[in-house]
Design brief:
With 359 residues, this protein is an alpha/beta fold. The protein has ten helices and 14 strands. Helix 1 crosses helix 10. The longest helix has 22 residues.
């Protein structure tokens, strides 16, 4: 039996964000299956003794797309070296990359059908579209993180990459069971709501505040804690609201202190904060643009833009009902799925002997 070797590309390695946590857990569990796991990153936030870390220099370029492009170039140098040493290593990108076998589509996509001023004159848009297309062209397999982003890829590129698309590589939910014994919301005096997102405009903070304001008018006492944006980046009218508390960013959100998460993004391929909240038994209000809502059956309700009796009924139900611990699969299951459904078929293409990986 030959040992499976995987190189994962991610700029920040550690449980410090949605995509970053996904990659950290995936690397950890792949190593448990006796795979040799390399991680190529430009910032080590949290190490893992099971994994071989390759750190490249961090770009100091001012624009995000320039930093992503620079990471792809530097990561490619490491990939080329690894391919020389381990010819059948599988390179799995989670960031912009120049050289990979597999890519997981985590983030919001740019629509290549955009035209007019933005496409013609914005270097940023042109750069993003070029990198995005390159990611899909280079990959042998594209893993969407949800059905939503799978549909976007097929729609935006007119089925060009359909044959490369796999089933969604859904994040795991592993309940922290001790948190499910805390008092129910109905027994409390104040409903404690949390909003998480550095990109607060895209994540729908304005909608969250609007919903909270209506609930306040209905006589429901509540607070809204905001994690992500710097307080001075928020509108002054938000900061003036007495029941709002901004916290900037922290690598760990204290979900155990809250009763409800609001994620009302215009476009969010999955929404890892939903998984994180549900691990603590915290129910969620989502918009239709959040991919997680397509896959979750318990603990979430969808806000369709109207604060009507139907939404109010669902809202009252979800905050007063007992939310049982739920797991659709574990991180171990996710790693096993990658080995059996993604990596092994690629190895069979690479290896005429169609070797098998023991799991």
């Amino acid at each position: 039996m030959n040992k499976l070797a995987i190189a994962l590309l991610v700029r920040r390695f550690g449980r410090c964000g949605g995509m970053e946590s996904y990659v950290w857990h995936l690397a950890d569990k792949l190593a448990d299956f006796s795979a040799t796991v390399y991680v190529i990153c430009d910032q080590l936030v949290e190490g893992n003794s099971k994994v071989k870390i390759c750190i490249v220099g961090r770009s100091k370029k001012p624009r995000n797309h320039e930093r992503l492009s620079a990471f792809g170039v530097q990561a490619n140098e490491v990939v080329q070296k690894l391919r020389g040493e381990i010819p059948d290593i599988i390179v799995h990108a989670h960031e912009r990359s120049l050289n990979h076998d597999v890519i997981t589509a985590h983030g919001t996509l740019f629509d290549p059908r955009v035209n007019g001023f933005k496409l013609r004159w914005s270097k940023r848009v042109r750069a993003w579209l070029h990198m995005q297309r390159n990611d899909f062209v280079k990959a042998q397999t594209i893993i969407p993180v949800s059905d939503l982003i799978s549909e976007q890829i097929q729609d935006y590129y007119a089925q060009e990459f359909s044959l490369k698309l796999s089933a969604p590589g859904l994040p795991a939910i592993e309940p922290i069971k001790a948190q499910f014994d805390k008092p129910r919301i109905a027994e409390k005096e104040v409903l404690k709501i949390v909003f998480v997102g550095k990109e607060w405009k895209r994540k729908g903070l304005d909608v969250a505040i609007s919903i909270c304001s209506v609930l306040k008018l209905m006589g429901i006492p509540l607070t809204l804690d905001i994690f992500g944006p710097l307080p001075n980046s928020l509108p002054t009218q938000y900061l003036a609201i007495e029941w709002i508390t901004p916290h900037s960013w922290t690598d760990r959100i204290p979900y155990e202190k809250f009763d409800l998460l609001m994620l009302l993004s215009k476009d969010d391929p999955f929404g890892m904060v939903v998984v994180e909240a549900l691990q603590y038994g915290v129910p969620c209000i989502l918009s239709k643009g959040v991919g997680a809502g397509r896959h979750l059956k318990k603990g979430v309700i969808t806000f369709n833009g109207k604060f009507d009796t139907s939404f109010l009924k669902d809202f009252i139900s979800i905050i007063n009902s007992h939310l049982p611990p739920q797991t659709w699969w574990s991180w171990k299951d996710l790693a096993r799925w990658h080995i059996t459904e993604i990596y092994t078929p690629l190895l069979k293409v690479h290896d005429a002997h169609q070797r098998k990986i023991e799991i």
